[in-house]
Amino acid sequence: MAQVVLKDVVKNYGPVYAVNRVSLTVEDGEFVALVGPSGCGKTTTLNLVAGLISMSGGAVTIGDRDVTNLDPKDRDIAMVFQNYALYPQKSVYKNLAFPLQMRKLPKEEIDKKVRDAAKTLDITHLLERKPRELSGGQQQRVALGRALVREPRVFLMDEPLSNLDAKLRVQMRSEIKRFHQDLGATIIYVTHDQLEAVTMSDKMAVMNGGFLQQYDSPANVFANPINMFVASFVGSPAMSLVPLTAVSKGTQVVLTSPEGWEMPLSDANGRKALSATSNKVVLGGRHSTIKVHKVQVPGAVPGKVYTVEPTGDVTFAQVFVSGATVNVSVPPGFALRPDEPVFLEFDQDRMHLFDGETEMALRL
Amino acid sequence: MSSITEYRSGGMGWRWAGRIFLVFLLGFTIMPMAWMLITSLKTGFAAMQYPPQWWPTEPTLDNYWRLLDPSGSVGQDFLRYFWNSMWVSVVTTVLAVAVAVPAAYAFSRFRFPGRTFLFFAVLLRNMFPAVVFLVPLFILMRVLGLVNTHGSLILTYLTFGLPLAIWLLKGFYDNIPIQLEQAARIDGATRFQAFFLIVMPLSTPGIIATSIYSFIGAWNEYIYAYTFLTRHDQMTLPVGIQRFFSENATDWPGLMAATFLMSIPVVVLFLVLQRYFVRALTEGAVKH
């Protein structure tokens, strides 16, 4: 296993930049998720690490080797594809043996390694079958087997679970996590599903528009999103964002809405709000940090219920606040009706404030 | 399964109408071939009788023996034409496939300047009728000193066969997921190995279909062979069998026997290779 370093990696097709000056370090044995909406450059980044496409600029190092100009076969990596890419004309055994044959290992050693990998993944009984005779989950296992049989320095995974049904996806999610723990493997994992990234990875790299937005542990990304994009992308339901205006009133700073209501800020939040480039400030809050009241309480802002979604142990609701949609949650016993007026109290210690111009988080 | 078929064909009435139509179509296709075969078994006299004999009273294989007897003059010529046709068709096919496989792969996988233009330029040749090129190609062959050689035919057939072969094969390569090659390259294969070990075997049905196509094209071609070749010992079958017309009267049984023998290679090709046409291409390779 090895460390992977991306330094100012660029991939452009003419004027279109698919990946723009991305730098990040994946430590030895770390599980890193590249996450973002489709077209954000995450798969391109993975392909650049794999060497499947050529870089327009920057460098990639795996272990102590600069692999920037090496062929995929010389990078000592393994990859699991979204569509598995099993060789259809070869049996499962031959699929697993192929990477070893390409490296000209002796026959007995190939046989041993193939059988070991098959045993690890519990696919020994499938070795003589052709890929088309397998279920989706079995194909997925074979694809994993073909990756791990060679003991590469880095595993690259491109949305390996997106083709599975929901139940199998959850099961394979924990299996891949287990696989990472047992092997101490360095894994770079591409997904568009932030939940997968949050639950599986040691660190997540959130990408958008070819740029790396934030690279940190899931807990930190969740708690301290660096900008409005990350805030609204990570977490389910998403963080709600309400554009407001910051105004100083004597010693206090308040957020005002076009409708005329005011929300006083704590001292710390007041100083954050004043550090914005203009008076435009966006208030952010996760559902778990917003209290719903049926009557006005000091500091709460008025809103109107839009939808109510009971899920069993918690009821989610969407509330219109000053033209924005705010996701809140209430206990199942708390009756909410659509179009009902409510008052939302944002937790001053856990609310987020963003610069309305730069969309960056305001910090002290 | 059967209920689905019934549902789709809209009930029993339509099903029977469909069957009758198919039988009619089958008869329409088979009749000429059957008549060819029957006539080839007749004597010259029986072939001219009116009303015609639906089955010869004295079926004979003499016409075939005559064509296949290397000691007779007819047999000598026929076998020479047969050999010429085989040689020209096989060389054309091998060259067409050898060039079309890498060309189609490149059109399918690589993005290069002028790719679309080149791809359509390749097809342009097939948008004109063959006769348009007859005189220019003849002049070209004369300049190159290729008139009365099989080389002139092979080159000419490639100008038709190659574009279609490239077009056909590109479709096959387009259908093979690029991830298979990427997986192979990561698994330790060079780009070339990935193509030869993974992609090529998957395109076997396409290569075979393409081969048959260019073989038949070359095997049946008449007008260029008629124009470029004047020497008897160079002629291919479609031109050569004209000699059955040339004597005082047409030798129908001989002509039909020759035609039947001429169609055998094509039929055998189809029978042997048909399973490749129906084989599912990349089924199970990827999940869609």
Structure described in brief:
Chain A contains 9 helices and 20 strands. With 364 residues, chain A is α+β, with helices and mostly antiparallel strands.
Account of the 3D structure:
The complex is a heterodimer of chains A (364) and B (288). Chain A is of the alpha+beta class. Chain A has two domains: 4-233, P-loop containing nucleotide triphosphate hydrolases (Rossmann fold), CATH 3.40.50.300; 240-355, Nucleic acid-binding proteins (OB fold (Dihydrolipoamide Acetyltransferase, E2P), Beta Barrel). Helices cover 25% and strands 34% of the residues of chain A. Chain B folds into two domains: 2-40; 73-278, MetI-like fold (Orthogonal Bundle), CATH 1.10.3720. Chain B has helices spanning 2-9, 12-40, 44-48, 62-68, 73-109, 115-124, 134-144, 150-175, 178-186, 191-202, 204-220, 223-228, 237-240, 243-246, 252-278. Chain B is an all-alpha fold.
Relevant terms:
heterodimer, A: 364 residues, alpha+beta, Rossmann fold, OB fold (Dihydrolipoamide Acetyltransferase, E2P), 2 domains, 6-stranded mixed β-sheet, elongated, B: 288 residues, mainly alpha, MetI-like fold, 74% helix, globular, disordered C terminus
In one word, what is the shape of chain A? elongated
Strand content of the residues of chain A, in percent? 25-35%
Listing every helix as H and every strand as E from the N terminus to the C terminus, the arrangement of chain B reads: HHHHHHHHHHHHHHH
Q: Give me the CATH fold name of the largest domain in chain A.
A: Rossmann fold
Number of helices of chain A: 9
Distance between termini of chain B? 24 Å
**Radius of gyration from the alpha-carbon trace of chain B, in angstroms:** 24 Å
CATH architecture of the largest domain in chain A: 3-Layer(aba) Sandwich
According to CATH, what is the topology of the largest domain in chain B?
Answer: MetI-like fold
Mean pLDDT of chain A: 93
Summarize the biggest pleated sheet of chain B. none
CATH superfamily of the largest domain in chain B: MetI-like
Structural class call of chain A reads alpha+beta
Number of strands of chain A: 20
User: Regarding CATH, which class of the largest domain in chain A?
Assistant: Alpha Beta
C-alpha-based Rg of chain A, rounded: 25 Å
CATH architecture of the largest domain in chain B: Orthogonal Bundle
